[in-house]
């Protein structure tokens, strides 16, 4: 049950018990097990991450039909968007992340099309604040960032055509290099730009001033760290493809590519600081990025530097439309179903 260290923790424990009892009374029989599993996975304990057993139970609702998966996603989102408790919110976001990484196709499908309004504030947590204690205030910054990060992860997945970092898309990943080689230059640029957006958002991860050893935060860091390695791999595949096309890149494509590569380079120090233990595994990719930027720059005359200078002044808001889910957007799969 975690550590009960103060009155707030005790109140949280009482709330959890009360919520489970309420679910038993008012839930329809077919929804009771879902509500109970969700409540058990998203307790008010501010120190302990969701029990893996309860996360597995939530993921199991995607193994039968959309009629079952859809209420599971709706219940999770209702819980996320109605809570004012930072620990409950971050646990809900953790379950969303687990669905992206380990969920079935059906469950991921339902997540990708929720809500129908889509849009910039997909998870509706940009103004989340829990001012109860200094710890919950600091956790609130993690809730806001984690929601933005997952929005970018979903957006990047939509651009790539598969759920990035997902274990359920092995077949897609096996064909990744073949698929990338068939892309047009503009589409390939769009993909690497989206991956750069995700890297930039990863860099904005809050610092844990008073949250060292907090199980909730540690789990988020581990999940994002795994995503980072997957993203680096996807970037490497696309850098290699651009290297093969270097002689046939247009001037405009060269400008776009160098801008993206510079943005990635700007992320390097922060990402290496955040994920230092992975440095040996990714240093070669950062070298490839630097070398590719120099190669592209050397293929054009002085116009490239001038053009890039103007390109870099482009506002952040002008690029935001490509980063987030558009109205009613879902992840596009190669099957063409969506």
**What value does the Rg take, in angstroms?**
21 Å
CATH architecture assignment: Alpha Horseshoe
Give a quick account of the main beta sheet: strands, pairing sense, barrel closure.
none
Total helix count?
A: 15
- Count the beta strands: 0
Question: Low-confidence segments, ≥5 residues, pLDDT <50?
Answer: 20-25, 315-328, 332-338
The CATH C-level class name: Mainly Alpha
Helix/strand order: HHHHHHHHHHHHHHH
- DSSP strand (E) fraction? under 5%
Tally the structural domains. 1
Helix-residue proportion: 55-70%
User: What structural class do helix, strand and pairing data support?
Assistant: mainly alpha
CATH topology: Serine Threonine Protein Phosphatase 5, Tetratricopeptide repeat
What does this structure look like?
GO terms for molecular function: 1-phosphatidylinositol binding; clathrin heavy chain binding; phosphatidylinositol-4,5-bisphosphate binding; SNARE binding. It is a single chain. The protein is an all-alpha fold. The protein has a single domain, classed as Serine Threonine Protein Phosphatase 5, Tetratricopeptide repeat (Alpha Horseshoe). Helices cover 68% and strands 0% of the residues. The protein is built from 15 helices and no strands. It has helices at residues 7-26, 29-41, 52-59, 66-82, 86-102, 105-112, 134-160, 170-174, 176-181, 185-203, 215-244, 251-274, 279-298, 303-312, 316-320. The model is unreliable at 20-25, 315-328 and 332-338 (pLDDT under 50).
């Amino acid at each position: 049950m975690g550590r009960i260290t103060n009155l707030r923790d005790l109140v949280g424990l009482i709330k959890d018990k009360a919520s489970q009892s309420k679910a038993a009374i008012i839930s329809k029989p077919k929804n009771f097990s879902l509500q109970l599993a969700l409540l058990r996975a998203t307790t008010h304990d501010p120190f302990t991450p969701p029990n893996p057993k309860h996360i597995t139970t939530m993921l199991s609702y995607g193994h039968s039909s959309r009629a079952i998966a859809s209420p599971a996603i709706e219940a999770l989102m209702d819980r996320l968007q109605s809570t004012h408790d930072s620990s409950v919110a971050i646990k809900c976001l953790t379950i969303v992340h687990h669905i992206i990484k380990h969920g079935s196709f059906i469950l991921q499908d339902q997540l990708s099309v929720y809500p129908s309004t889509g849009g910039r504030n997909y998870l509706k947590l940009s103004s989340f604040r829990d001012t109860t204690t200094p710890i919950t205030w600091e956790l609130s910054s993690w809730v806001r960032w984690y929601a933005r990060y997952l929005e970018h992860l979903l957006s990047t997945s939509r651009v790539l055509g598969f759920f990035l970092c997902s274990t359920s898309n092995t077949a897609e990943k096996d064909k990744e290099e073949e698929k990338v080689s068939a892309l047009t230059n503009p589409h390939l640029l769009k993909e690497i730009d989206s991956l750069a957006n995700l890297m930039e958002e990863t860099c904005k991860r809050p610092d844990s001033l008073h949250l060292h050893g907090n199980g909730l935060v540690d789990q988020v860091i581990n999940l994002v760290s795994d995503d980072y390695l997957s993203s680096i791999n996807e970037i490497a595949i696309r850098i290699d493809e651009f290297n093969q096309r270097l002689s046939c890149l247009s001037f405009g494509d060269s400008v776009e590519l160098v801008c993206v590569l510079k943005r990635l380079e700007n992320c390097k120090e922060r990402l290496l600081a955040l994920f230092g233990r992975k440095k040996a595994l990714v240093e070669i990719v950062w070298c490839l990025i630097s070398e590719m930027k120099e190669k592209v720059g050397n293929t054009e005359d002085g116009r490239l530097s001038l053009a890039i200078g103007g390109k870099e002044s482009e506002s952040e808001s002008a690029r935001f439309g490509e980063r987030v889910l558009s109205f009613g957007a879902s992840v596009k799969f190669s099957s063409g179903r969506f």
